[in-house]
Each structure stands twice: as C-alpha cells, then as structure tokens.
Amino acid sequence: MVSNLIKAKGLAVLFIHLMLFSGCQARQAPPAKDEAGRMGWSESCVKVEEMSISVSEADMAMINELVSSISKEAGKVAEIGDLILSLGEKLLGTPYVAHTLEVNATEQLVVNLQEVDCTTFVEYILALALTIEEGKAGFEDYASILACLRYREGYPNGYASRLHYFSEWLHLHAQQGLLELVSEPIGSKPFDSKVSFMTAHPGAYPQMADPAILEQMKEVEKNVSALKTNFIPKEDIREVEKYIQNGDIIAFTTDIEGLDVSHTGFAYFREGRLHLLHASTRGNSVEVSVVPLSEYLAEMRRVIGILVARVK
Question: What number of CA atoms fall less than 13 Å from residue 106's CA on the CB side?
C-alpha cells in the first residue's frame, strides 16, 4: 500500500555523521547469469502493492515527469552511464540531508528526492536510469526497482534487511548481474573490510535498542566482513582514470575502524579528467567536484582509495 507522508519538521535525530549510508533473507532477487539476463533482475523485483512506501505527492509527480520526459529523449543517450549523469544533473543543488530514511519506527521504502545523502542520491538516480532504460512506465515500476537496490531481499523486511554497508550493496548487485566491479581487476590492493561500526555504536541507531535487531546486524556485519575485493589506492587514481567511464559508481574506502565506505557518487568526466557527481557534505548539496577526484581525495586522511562499479 502506498501512503503519502507529510514530513514532520524540526525532528532531531542523533546519529554518528560518519555513517553516510543508511543502509536478512526471505525473497532475494535471483542473480542474472549474463548481461542479456539483466532484464530478469527488475522483473523479479517485488511489486509495490506488497510493500509500504513513504512518498510525497510532489516526489511521485517528479518521478513520473522525469521518466516520461527523458524516456522520449532516451534514444539520444547511447550509454546508460550518460543517462545516469543526465538524470543526476536534474538534481544539482538538491540539499544534502542525512538520515532521511529514518522517518518511521517500521521499516518502509522511503522515496524523497527533495533531500538526499550520498547513497540515497546514487540509489534514486540509478533507479530512474534503470526504469527508463528498461522501458518501464512510471512511479510504481520505479519504486519496485528502488526497493531492489536498497534491500537485500528486494523489499523492506525490517531494519536489518536494508543494505546498510555499501560494500555489500556493491557485491550483491554484482552477484545479481546488475553491476561489474571495475576496481576488482585494476585495483592494486586487497580491500578486506572488517565492518562493525553500527553494532559498535548502537546508541547512534535507535532501532538497535531492540536486542533482536542488534543481533541481526551482528550477523550482517559478519557476512559483510567476509567479502573480498580489490580497491584502487587514491594515489593511483590519476593513472587509472582511463579505465573509468561516465556514470560509474564510485565509493570512498576508509580506514575508519569498523567502516567500509564513507562516501559515494558517480564518475563525471570534465575536460578529460575524472570528477565526482555527488551529494556533498562540503557543499551541503548535489554538485560536481570542482577539482578532479584525485585532487579532491588527496587531503582526505581517512580515505584510502575507491571502489568502482559499472552498470552492465
């Protein structure tokens, strides 16, 4: 059932700001075996009638308008990466607001394009691009795809069903055939993330006052910590830019204890150099980094490199 949410104003929520992604197995979208099977990924997503959705009428209208208007122009966009950037540019200047998914005690699919953080921005834009590329109709198809991106099972089934850690988000969708982990073959260092940040700071997450949810998240962290991949050290980014494309998903790997990824956005080439289209905590809005990504990261002491994924 889709319910319209009137956002309460002045709601103060105490969270640790480092946890930028507000992100355990009943119905999981089955993995596609090849690129031709990716259509099956969206077809297997849970229909909106089977989930609770928090969305405003303004956002529903905005999504329907974007899908309708850009679908008519989609033939002009040869690559999905360019479509992703075209859509991302529509949200330039949108305010950066953290914790917009924490609007209800019961886990719901939240759709809020008026306020985004780095990860919800990536999810909203990617869901729009997939909706358009696969010839879907509008909001209901969009919401179904968004839920498939955000939830391990493809729909909200409690707090722990959300993909809170972005490394798991990347790995799951690569396993399903939606993404290719570009940084795996070109990354020069192994990224063996041992995540524990959320359960180590349960007071920052009100839902984990429930002992059952806390235990569920411990199991999630155990599984995420077992994932293995390579990452691109930040000092190598300038050299490997040539292997990255417009619209690739970029995630900042961090050495903060217990955390895997601290920020994410889309690759955006400007004058031949790699920049980042993202919901920025510096500018407090969606923007394109003024300097190339290699320079942008140079002074970020806790960022050690990047993971890169491409939509197939």
Answer: 4
